[in-house]
Write a structure and sequence with these properties.
The protein has eleven helices and eight strands. It is an alpha+beta fold. The protein folds into three domains: 43 residues; 244 residues, MetI-like (MetI-like fold, Orthogonal Bundle), CATH 1.10.3720.10; 70 residues. A four-stranded antiparallel β-sheet has the order 1-2-3-8. A two-stranded antiparallel ribbon has the order 4-5. A two-stranded antiparallel ribbon has the order 6-7. The relative contact order is 0.12.
Length: 393
């Protein structure tokens, strides 16, 4: 292109696009900087210092539930309190996602059942739980159902070494008695798990070659349980158990699933499963009816048709909106403050904020945690979504 026909820079669409994008980024950065600086100046005017020094200070309050990170009153710093909040948030999110996926998938399939009663029961479930406010559901299950129906600790429902009352479920707590034997057991269990994966792959190839399916799931579950216990005995039983003992007012020792954790989990699962069920229904209905007719012509039963033909094709429609429901469940766990479960918002943006007054830093850290959790969940599920997408030429 000669100089006479070259497009001037100010009229080149690509150049103008880059200039406008750079200007937009600069404006956003300046606006964010102005907001942060104004907030810091206002806090300083009120003698509120904004710094990270408080993170190394000892937290002067107690934490009732921390399953994996040890908390010691008078020794644990705010840094560890922050990680305990993250731990509890991830715990409720993972447990909720697993249970909501299973329940939502079942309800979605039942919703399309030819059985009129089963289909209508699933429809009623979806409409009730999807349209009621989640906060109201959490408070209903915790205060109106579980707290009202469960007995006090001294009248606990005893189930062997397990005790159920209005403070939660008390159970034996496993303690590692020997580190070496414990890791030997973990290594053996890992080998068993790898063997189960190889068996599942072999069973898949066998089905493709012969058309004869195997109950892979139940075989692997039975193998993991039986062989895992045998490996536990071979490793010399590396665990001991701290059994809960009823004291004057409450249980001491052992482990506990607190009632607020169960109430929050139960409400989140019922609520999120209603939305997932609709995603499953939409995904199944997106599969052409001709696929089911072709499967029937090949002699497949209805269960085999759903498992082998309909569901694999429906996943490409089910997964994208379900990712949003997983993110919503994680963020909705912040409503735990209503029942006293100590997750990141209740523990960090609530109690810690009131103790230290470091609003800017604490709220920013809380937002950052949710951003990381959401982006990580999206990345994992988007990767899986690409794996199950239909490959087109």
């Amino acid at each position: 292109m000669s100089d006479s026909t070259r497009i001037p820079l100010h009229r080149d669409p690509k150049v103008r696009a880059w200039v406008f994008q750079i200007l937009a980024i600069l404006v956003v950065c300046y606006g964010f900087y102005s907001i942060v600086q104004t907030t810091i100046d206002n806090l300083a005017a009120r003698n509120i210092q904004t710094n990270l020094n408080f993170l190394t200070q000892v937290a002067p309050f107690n934490i009732g539930f921390s399953p994996f990170i040890d908390f010691k009153l008078g020794e644990t710093t705010y840094w560890m309190v922050f990680f305990i909040g993250i731990q509890n948030t991830i715990l409720i999110a993972v447990l909720g996602i697993i249970a909501a996926t299973i329940l939502g998938f079942l309800i979605g399939v039942v919703r399309l059942s030819p059985n009129w009663l089963a289909s209508k029961v699933a429809l009623v479930y979806i409409e009730i739980f999807r349209n009621a406010p989640l906060l109201l559901q959490i408070m209903f299950w915790n205060f109106a159902i579980f707290l009202a129906s469960l007995p006090a600790p001294r009248q606990s429902v005893e189930m062997g070494a397990f005790y159920l009352n209005n403070r939660g479920l008390h159970m034996p707590k496993p303690i590692i008695a020997d580190d070496v034997r414990f890791w030997i057991w973990i290594g053996l269990v890992t080998l068993i798990f790898v063997g189960c994966l190889r068996f599942a792959r072999w069973a898949k190839h066998r089905f493709e070659d012969t058309g004869k399916p195997l109950p892979v799931f139940w075989i692997n579950i039975a193998t993991l349980v039986l062989m895992g216990y045998l490996a536990y005995r071979i490793a010399g039983s590396p665990l001991t158990f701290d059994v809960p003992v009823l004291g004057r007012f409450n249980f001491s020792g052992g482990g506990q699933i607190p009632l607020p954790l169960f109430s929050l989990w139960f409400a989140l699962v019922l609520y999120t499963a209603a939305f997932i069920a609709e995603n499953v229904r939409a995904g199944i209905q997106s599969v052409s009816h001709g696929q089911s007719e072709a499967a029937s012509a090949l002699g497949l039963t209805r269960a085999q048709t759903v498992k082998l033909v309909v569901i694999p094709q429906a996943l490409r429609v089910i997964i994208p909106p379900t990712i949003s429901q997983y993110l919503n469940l994680t963020k909705n766990s912040s409503l735990a403050v209503a029942v006293g479960y100590e997750e990141i918002v209740s523990l960090w943006a609530g109690i810690t904020l009131n103790q230290t007054g470091q609003a800017l830093i604490i709220i920013a850290m809380t937002i950052f945690v949710y951003e990381c959790l959401s982006l990580t969940t999206s990345a994992i599920l988007n990767w899986y979504n690409r794996r199950v997408q239909l490959t087109e030429r």
